[in-house]
Design a protein that fits this description.
The protein is mainly α and about 350 residues long. The protein has a domain of about 220 residues. Helix content is about 80%, strand content about 0%. The protein is built from 14 helices and four strands. It has a two-stranded antiparallel sheet with strand order 1-4. A hairpin with a 2-residue loop joins strand 2 and strand 3. The longest helix is centred in the C-terminal third of the chain and has 43 residues. The chain is globular.
Length: about 350
């Protein structure tokens, strides 16, 4: 009985992780059986280079969703950061900078990109925090602003030809793993520490779950929101830098579908769309699941439109499943409380 009770407690505490692990295994087995090329080492290496982009955007989205918001400007921030870095590095490369001057120029591009992420994140956070406007509408507007700035800076064209030494980091491996994947692992670790080992992690969950109670408990909601959007902007900028290193190009409208995919990844990873809850471990599993699906679709030669259709269906299924699960839990809780009340009345 004690063992059974322990197993039940373990399952209840890790339901989301177990469910996602099962989904990941099913997807892996299904894609392996549908395509003989799926299990090739080169396929997994390719996935290792592709997953950091969606992963970084998903982290940015998850943090904002924990506050109860949505950030539709993540791709706009990432692309604008990428463009600013590309313009600086392209000019330096064209000027023939080498040695220490080249390193300083690359660092200048990286710092400028991160500064763009900070400024854009602060811009979003200040508007959302002090106006009370819905974050989805605010970030939809700022997304167009950031994309528009990118179009002006590039004249609507792609910026390319930066330092090969910088591009090296986006297309090579270290210690058996793609270098961009190491940056994603570091970002996931930082996010886990923020959510689980800092006061900010407690505050962001409180703000998302019950803003009124948070205010009465002394939490500065404005500060928490601004910090969250700022951190989100930094992760987006890092993603932009990774995209530049991998593709050797920057474009104002690069990969706009990542916004929707990041929302799907966060929700699939058990982040509560209403705010207050999100876990890094389940986000990792959802990232793996979506990358396995995406790679499988590519190998089966299914077009982009089918993938977008599949992502939409998957999001509806996940939202419906979460709603049913919450409704079942609510009814069980109500039944339990009614039973306890009846027992107390009978005694």
């Amino acid at each position: 009985m004690q063992q059974e009770s322990t197993m039940r407690v373990f399952y209840r505490r890790n339901t989301d992780t177990i469910r996602l692990l099962f989904i990941t295994i099913v997807i892996f087995i299904t894609m392996s059986s549908l395509s003989s090329r799926f299990l090739r080492p080169n396929n997994f290496l390719s996935m290792g280079f592709q997953i950091p982009e969606l992963g970084l955007y998903s982290i940015a989205m998850m943090l904002v969703m924990i506050t109860g918001g949505r950030d539709l400007s993540i791709v706009g921030i990432g692309n604008l950061s990428c463009i600013v870095a590309a313009l600086i590095m392209r000019d330096g490369y064209a000027a023939g900078l080498a040695g220490g001057a080249m390193i300083m120029n690359i660092l200048l591009g990286v710092m400028a990109a991160l500064l763009v992420g900070v400024v854009c994140g602060l811009f979003n956070g200040i508007i959302v925090a002090f106006t009370g406007l819905p974050s989805m509408l605010v970030t939809m507007a700022t997304s167009y602003i950031f994309t528009g700035i990118g179009v002006v800076l590039t004249n609507g064209e792609a910026i390319s030809k930066v330092y090969p030494e910088y591009v090296y980091f986006g297309n090579n491996s270290a210690l058996g793993l793609p270098i961009p994947l190491w940056f994603l692992i570091a970002a996931l670790l930082i996010t886990w520490l923020l959510l689980n080992k800092t006061r900010y992690g407690f505050e962001i969950k409180m703000v998302g779950s019950n803003p009124l109670a948070s205010r009465f408990s002394g939490i500065n909601i404005h500060s928490v929101l601004i910090k969250t959007y700022l951190i989100s902007g930094i992760f987006c900028a890092v993603c932009g830098l990774e995209i530049l290193a991998r593709t050797d190009s920057a474009k104002a409208n690069y990969a706009l579908t990542y916004t929707f995919q990041a929302i799907l990844c966060a929700v699939l990873g058990a982040t509560d769309p209403n705010g207050g809850y999100g876990k890094v471990s389940t986000l990792v599993l959802s990232l793996i699941s979506m990358q396995l699906l995406s790679s499988g679709f590519n190998m089966l030669r299914l077009g982009t439109y089918f993938k977008e259709f599949a992502w939409g269906v998957l999001l509806l299924v996940v939202l419906s499943a979460n709603f049913l699960n919450n409704e079942i839990s609510r009814r069980r809780y109500v039944a339990k409380m009614n039973k306890r009340a009846a027992q107390e009345d009978g005694s």
